[in-house]
Amino acid sequence: MVKIDNIRDYMRLQAEEDRKRKWIQVEGEDLDDALRQAAIELGLPVKKLEYEIRDPGKKGAFGLGKSKCIIIAYPIVEEVIDKLEEDDFTVERLEDKPVDKDGVAVVRLTSEGALLSIFAPLGRGSKVTEKQALAMLNARDVTDIDNSLVKKLVKISDGIPVKVGEFVYNPASDPLVSVEITDFEMKAFITVRTPGKGGADIDFDNIINFLKNNNIIHGIDEDKVRELENFPVYEKSILVAEGTKAVNGNDAKIIYNFDITRSTIKLKEKNGKVDFKEQNLIKNVVEGQALARKIPLEEGKSGRTVTGRLLPAKDGKDILFEVGKNVKLSDDGITAVATINGQVITLLGKLNVEPIYVVPGDVNLKTGGNVTFLGTVLVKGSVADGFKVKAAGNIEVLGNVGKAELDAEGDIIVHQGISGKNGGFVRAGKGVWAKFLENAIIESGEIVVASDGIINCKVEANKKIICQGKRATIVGGVLRAAEDIHAKSLGSVAGSDTVLEVGFDPKSKKRLVELNEEKEVLDKELDGISLDISTIKNLNKLKKKLTDEKKEYFNQLIEKKSETEKDIAQLNEEIEEIQEHLASLSVSGRISSSFKVFPGVKIHIKDAFLEVKNEFKAVTFINENGLVKITKYEELEEDYSKKK
């Protein structure tokens, strides 16, 4: 494959010969005949030639006044590449390489004389030679040429026109310029006729003045006119001025920071599968969150035609930016901000933040799947198995709760019951209220109330666990409360394993159990590390030398032992703090039954324990001097059967 360097080498070899015929001046009966003559001399097809008309020639009348067409012709830039391809070379195209362009000599004939401009090449292009510059001057019939000045200009190649000679100037042969205004006065084209013998080339100032004299005063492309001055183009329509279009201003609009439609459901993936329970239909927002922003209308920008006629533009239309409940506008009226946590909705074109999210039926796939809301959730039906409801406020369910997960920072109120099927989980920052609890895990920051009973549940409450009603029975499970556990009946005739604990902080005790389990694991790990260290020390005493691997392992064991001892020390410190906290609690705790306590019930009141062996009626258990004492039944001080 031929690289770019090969192409350059080829070009250098051909440079001298090509330079001699870089351009030629030929004449013919007409333009077509002149081009055919140029193609013969350059050895190229006509389609691969570029040319400039120096004299278009005249047909004359009856053989009088007839003159030939004179052109300057040269190969197009691509000819070098075409020639290489014809010689069966494969060219590697390098688009990112800099452009190579030969230098250019430009001769301009003016009323003051002949001007020469030498433009430097680009990249690895060839420089203009003195010979080429002189040939260009001779081709334009320039006399009294200052050769030394030409040589200097070739050396400098700065593109600045400098007078280097004279020519016989004939003002009558100057090029004629015509103008055409099109596109409803939005464009102006000029056509420059080829100058006659002795005529001067087109001039920047003359063109500008000509345009202005023809009422073209706006949008003149002076760079294009300057280019025409340096590189004249004759007999061709050239765009030299364009009007400025009027631009209407954009209408004001509101950009929402959330999807205001519910038509598109964005499903999440879980373990590579689409979780249809997470449909994300609720648009949760927090207090202070920007909900939407108004983009003000834009003023229109007037335009002008090339003749200067004003084209008026329209300003954009304004839009009313209104907000509803729990939303306020910023001082500049541009941004809508939520004033509470909740669900953002649009109602009658206004933004609102609702503190309550209502599920019209059951929580299942049909009604949108799982619910996560930064306010209160009201479920008018039930919560089906496998679904989750999470709320920053309260959760109220008018139906039942199955093997589901409910999590609220406030209260959780279930009008029917919770049947967890050994998998349901309910956690409330305040209280849990339900008709019954069955085979579920319940955690409450304050109180748990079930009117019809608690069956085989694990319940923890930082204050009270209350079963108050006609069938208010606690059967099976483990129930822990800081203050009271109260029910009509405790246990059952069948002797179900029912564990009741009061007089301590359930969360602290739970954490204490976790810490002791962690400490037990670390203690065993420390024993193993210490044994390995002792073994290596004994080996060192016997062999008096350890391998590098053994030494590295020994150092790792020493470091691991230090880290483990620190972890154990931290656990001991936290265990001690929790034990002191539990010991300092002033809550004495009591467990009460208004009707009957069955054998098999296990009673824990602080550090006292009692397993009920006999049936008791209407009793209250308290801690007295480290022992569980059975006393007369103490009634509840208030009615907990209804949420206040």
Short structural description:
This protein has 9 helices and 39 strands. With 644 residues, the protein is α/β, with parallel strands linked by helices.
Explain this structure.
This protein is α/β, with parallel strands linked by helices and 644 residues long. Among the domains are: 4-165, no CATH class; 171-242, no CATH class; 253-354, no CATH class; 509-584. 23% of the residues lie in helices and 34% in strands. The protein is built from nine helices and 39 strands. The strands form eight sheets. The protein has a six-stranded parallel β-barrel with strand order 28-29-31-33-32-30. Helix 8 (506-543) runs antiparallel to helix 9 (548-584). It is elongated and about 145 Å long. It starts with a helix and ends in a 12-residue tail after the last strand. Residues 14-21, 78-96, 262-269 and 272-279 have low confidence and may be disordered.
Number of beta strands: 39
Shape: elongated
Distance between the termini: 90 Å
Give the proportion of residues in helices: 10-25%
Q: How many individual helices?
A: 9
Q: Order of strands in the sheet with the most strands?
A: 28-29-31-33-32-30
Mean pLDDT: 84
- What are the low-pLDDT stretches, counting only 5+ consecutive residues below 50? 14-21, 78-96, 262-269, 272-279
Main sheet overview: 6 strands, parallel, barrel
Derived from helix and strand composition plus strand pairing, the structural class reads: alpha/beta
Cα Rg: 49 Å
